[in-house]
């Protein structure tokens, strides 16, 4: 049986949303400009900040969206303010670089009640390294460095509900508590791949009151009697795992992979800042960009018989 065909039923609205993604007034709006300058001291030692967290956050979002180096970013923002005839200036490139290390990016959209299905996954982001062609032809000259971005995505809205940033050496299952513990919303079901098939992850989801949909690994054994994971292990050993995935809506987990693809296409698969803490700000600013883009409008698909 071939794949079902779908058609977009809200094309006019979705088309306008795609057009608005490039509108500079959407990204630098009245709220951002009204909170551009810092009015309160940061409370630490030294001179207070000239630019607010909102200004730094907006700058990092524009950097991610338009893939700009820091110096070009400063010139870009100044030119936008000049065209808008607004008496504001961009933070200097060195200011953006320093403040990116400490800025907290508020990427979450306002809470809208319980989450029916949350899908979780992680992807690698390249920090530096030669291109694929050069490496293949001439060999690599220095070790590549990677970071990992962990995302928890609402399957119904495609929004990123939680995001974490880590070193490449950190296992996916180790980050799950950091992703889910801060959430105060009811989560009915959580789907993830076999990397999260650990007792710690299942214990966490049980405490959160969430149904785990995590396929066991190939050599998985049964756990204590009555554990809900045993049903999946039984399906694995009886070669009925595909049916188990279908019965438990595991196919929704592909939306997390779609979110990773969306991030790398819309933002970038690379990080340009060198300091680890600044990379955290850079990556989460990209997550906020993605959530704002999704908020503009998403396609509504209908199966064509």
Describe the SSE topology.
Blueprint: E1 5-8, H1 11-20, H2 24-27, H3 30-34, H4 53-66, H5 70-84, H6 93-99, E2 118-128, H7 132-138, E3 145-154, E4 160-167, H8 172-180, E5 189-191, H9 199-208, E6 211-213, H10 229-237, H11 241-247, H12 254-266, H13 276-296, E7 301-304
Parallel strand pairs: 2-5, 5-6
Antiparallel strand pairs: 1-7, 2-3, 3-4
Helix pairs in contact: 4-13, 5-6, 8-9, 10-11
- Total strands: the figure is 7
Average residue-wise pLDDT: 91
How would you classify the helix and strand content by structural class? Answer: alpha/beta
Low-confidence stretches: none
Global shape: globular
Measured as a percent range, the helix fraction is: 40-55%
Strands of the largest sheet, in order across it?
4-3-2-5-6
Describe it.
- The protein is an alpha/beta fold and about 300 residues long.
- Helix content is about 45%, strand content about 15%.
- It has 13 helices and 7 strands.
- It has helices at about 10-20, 25, 30-35, 55-65, 70-85, 95-100, 130-140, 170-180, 200-210, 230-235, 240-245, 255-265, 275-295; strands at about 5-10, 120-130, 145-155, 160-165, 190, 210-215, 300-305.
- The strands form 2 sheets. Strands 4-3-2-5-6 form a 5-stranded mixed beta sheet, with helices on both faces.
- A hairpin with a 5-residue loop joins β3 and β4.
- The longest helix is centred in the C-terminal third of the chain and has 21 residues, at about 275-295.
- The radius of gyration is 22 Å and the shape is globular.
- The chain starts with a strand and ends with a strand.
- The mean pLDDT is about 90.
């Amino acid at each position: 049986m071939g794949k079902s065909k779908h058609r977009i039923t809200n094309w006019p609205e979705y088309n306008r949303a795609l057009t608005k993604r490039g509108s500079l007034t959407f990204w630098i709006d009245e709220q951002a400009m009204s909170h551009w300058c810092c009015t309160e001291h940061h409370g630490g030692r030294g001179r207070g900040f000239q630019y607010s967290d909102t200004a730094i956050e907006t700058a990092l979002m524009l950097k991610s969206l338009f893939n700009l180096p820091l110096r070009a970013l400063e010139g870009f923002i100044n030119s936008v303010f000049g065209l808008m005839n607004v008496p504001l200036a961009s933070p200097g490139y060195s200011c953006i670089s320093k403040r990116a290390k400490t800025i907290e990016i508020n990427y979450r959209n306002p809470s809208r009640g319980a989450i029916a299905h949350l899908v979780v996954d992680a992807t690698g982001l390249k920090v530096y390294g030669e291109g694929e062609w050069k490496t293949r032809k001439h060999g690599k000259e220095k070790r590549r460095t990677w970071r990992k971005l962990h995302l928890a995505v609402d399957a119904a809205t495609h929004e990123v509900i939680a995001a974490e940033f880590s070193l490449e050496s950190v296992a996916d299952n180790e980050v799950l508590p950091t992703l889910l513990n801060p959430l105060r919303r009811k989560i009915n079901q959580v789907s993830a791949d076999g990397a999260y098939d650990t007792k710690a992850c299942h214990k966490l989801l049980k405490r959160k009151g969430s149904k785990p949909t995590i396929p066991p690994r190939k050599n998985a054994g049964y756990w204590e009697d009555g554990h809900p994971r045993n049903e999946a292990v039984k399906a694995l050993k009886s070669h009925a795992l595909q049916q188990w995935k279908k019965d438990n809506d595991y196919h929704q987990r592909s939306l997390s992979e779609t979110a990773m693809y969306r991030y790398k296409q819309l933002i970038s698969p690379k990080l340009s800042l060198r300091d680890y803490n600044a990379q955290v700000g850079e990556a989460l600013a990209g997550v906020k960009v993605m959530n704002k883009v999704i908020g503009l409008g998403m396609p509504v698909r209908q199966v064509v018989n």
